[in-house]
Amino acid sequence: MERIKGFLPDKRIKTTTVPGHSGVFMRFTGPQHGELIIFLHGLGCDGSIWKHQLITFGKQGYRAIALDLPGIATESVRQFDSFTTYTEYAVDLIKAVAGDQPVTLVGNSFGGALAISVALQAPTLVRRLILIDTAGVEPPDIPRMHAARASMLDMFGRIHSRPVWFVLSNLFGLRRMMTQGARGRALVRRMGNPNLWSALPQLHGTNTLVVWGADDQLIPAEIGQAIAAVLSAEFVSMVSSGHMPQVEKPAELSQVLLEWIDATQNKLT
């Protein structure tokens, strides 16, 4: 299995600014005219969290893009006062990258909530929706997530189960992640926590995959199962993974996503 070391820079991944949006960065791989798949990260990280998926999808001929979300990955010149205005800006970013081409939109945690919100605001922009341990959805009959339950070990992968190269490479970026985490939490405090549960039925019929770490201590898998039930979506449980399967089980997650996208091609043609 190919070794992709944590979040350290990789020459196979290029970085540039989003067209028309100075100071907002994106990481990308794959041919310019390949089918677009866009990855949205959560709090406390940036687009580098999708390193394995970017490289894997680029090799498969996709144009794979991970956005560095403003106000989280980097400081933002704009002050967002609501999740709606933040979503509007995210739609603008995706349109700047994709034009009129519908995309496969993948989101983890806060990025999953944002992906749902983008699909609600701009449904013609989203070809497929992939939700990974998604925040911002709180079914009334399932206990709310409790941030205190999520230790640093769960948020960044259970270190004791990872190889030495992974631990060391990720420790180098720990200070940056803590800064991004504080920045993201401040953003959410200003905007308020979204609860998209009541809006989910509007996405029924959207081609959706829900993936959840079986050991997620931040947002219980029951929430993922409830989301999948409302959307009539396929649900995949990632064994021995917590809140961030793209880090904890990167190769396995990439394979799940590739196989599901391949299986859905006939439905969309």
3D architecture notes:
- It contains 9 helices and 8 strands.
- Helix 1 packs across helix 9 and helix 2 crosses helix 3.
- The two termini are 33 Å apart.
- The N terminus is likely disordered.
Largest sheet: 8 strands, mixed
- Rg calc: 17 Å
First-residue to last-residue Cα separation = 33 Å
Mean pLDDT: 82
Question: Structural class of the secondary elements?
Answer: alpha/beta
Percentage of residues in DSSP E strands:
15-25%
Number of helices: 9
- Give the tally of β-strands: 8
Please give the order of strands in the largest beta sheet: 1-2-4-3-5-6-7-8
Helix proportion: 25-40%
Order of helices and strands: EEEHEHEHEHHHEHEHH
Shape: globular
Which properties best describe this structure?
single chain; alpha/beta; 8-stranded mixed sheet; 8 strands; globular; disordered N terminus
What's the structural blueprint in terms of helices and strands?
Elements: E1 14-18, E2 21-29, E3 36-40, H1 51-59, E4 63-67, H2 83-98, E5 103-109, H3 110-121, E6 126-134, H4 152-155, H5 164-171, H6 174-191, E7 208-213, H7 221-231, E8 234-238, H8 245-248, H9 250-268
Parallel strand pairs: 3-4, 3-5, 5-6, 6-7, 7-8
Antiparallel strand pairs: 1-2, 2-4
Helix pairs in contact: 1-9, 2-3
